[in-house]
Amino acid sequence: MAQAAAVAKQPAPLQRRRGPATPRRLPYLLIAPAGLLMLGFIAYPVISVFYYSLQNYNPTKPWRNGFAGLDNFVHAFTADPQFWDTLTFSAKWVVVEVGLQLLFGLALALIVNQTFVGRAAGRALVFSPWAVSGVLTSAIWVLLYNSQTGITRYLADAGIGQYGTSWLSDTSTVFPAAVVADLWRGVPFFAILILADLQSVSKDLYEAAEVDGASRLRQFLHITLPHLKDAIVLSTLLRAVWEFNNVDLLYTLTGGGPAGETTTLPLYIANTSVDAHNFGYASALTTVAFVILLFCSIVYLRLSKFGGGDK
Q1: Residue 55 · residue 67 · CB < 8 Å
Q2: Can you state the angle between helices 279-304 and 71-78, rounded to 10 degrees?
Q3: What pTM did the predictor assign?
Q4: What does the chain look like in DSSP terms, one character per residue?
């Protein structure tokens, strides 16, 4: 009994004071303000576009405004030849630009990946056009293509072509001229991404291939390209979306002309909404462009097996 009483008199062990437990939802609460801002700036415009695509909405003609249903979409596919012309040119523009930018970007990345004197300065010089905005790029090339002070004048001085020739106002030369201008800015994008992936390739693979007698071409086809697969797929997809939505360069460089020769679908949408104030029809065209890009992106990723890890 005495032992039990002594045990009873002993002070109870101090319980560890627990601070307020960190709720699992705290990280989500911390990022909630940024998430709400992104939701407001992204989700609301997207929902608005889908809404107005079903409306007749033109502030200059309010008596015609109202619910249109699918009329805007039907008009685009059945009664608007300019929609098909701009969509066809957009596809042509994307294929040519992305293909050439990938080709030249890959070649450039392979060159600057080599060891040579002044490599750091060479890389900075090669990648610098990517830091130039689209509008500034257009301004530079507008000056270069100027018929009085640009390239064509110096070619005419050398006996090539005629004085006063403007490549941007001639339907036979405006497309290649615009392609070259955009190549100047787009090639470094591919070069940067591909170079970053090239530097992760183990040199032991190349040394083993040389021991086995593999040529440079076989090393490129069987070591370099498989390793670059995911980088190439990702860069071409991103660049294809950007080129499809290209407005700043073509708008500043050619304005979609001459005679609508360089009008892409996004540029046509911009003209329809800003110039013609037909926001309902422009929203329908935007919705169509969104569906086209989404479908093509999914198909491209499926066919390319992006992220399959089969390097």
Answers
A1: yes
A2: 70
A3: 0.83
A4: -HHHHHHHHSPPPPPPPP-PPPPTTHHHHHHHHHHHHHIIIIIHHHHHHHHHTTEE--TT-GGG-EE-TTHHHHHHHHS-HHHHHHHHHHHHHHHHHHHHHHHHHHHHHHHHTS--TTHHHHHHHHHGGGGS-HHHHHHHHHHHT-TTTSHHHHHHHTTSS-TT--GGG-TTTHHHHHHHHHHHHHHHHHHHHHHHHHTTS-HHHHHHHHHTT--HHHHIIIIIHHHHHHHHHHHHHHHHHHHHT--HHHHHHTTT-STTTT--HHHHHHIIIIIS--HHHHHHHHHHHHHHHHHHHHHHHHHHTTT----
pLDDT tens for the 311 residues of the chain, in order = 455 555 555 555 545 555 454 677 888 888 888 888 888 888 888 889 999 999 998 888 888 888 988 999 999 999 999 999 999 999 999 999 999 999 999 999 888 888 777 778 888 888 888 888 877 888 888 888 888 887 888 887 777 777 777 888 888 888 999 999 999 988 999 998 888 888 888 888 888 888 888 888 888 888 888 888 888 998 999 999 999 998 888 888 888 888 888 899 999 999 998 888 899 999 999 999 999 999 999 999 998 887 665 54
Q: Which of 97, 183, 191 is nearest to 141 (CA)?
A: 183
| Cβ-Cβ contacts under 8 Å for 161 (sequence gap 6 or more) | 152, 155
CA–chain centroid gap for 74, Å, is 29
Look-up of token digits 């996004």:
266
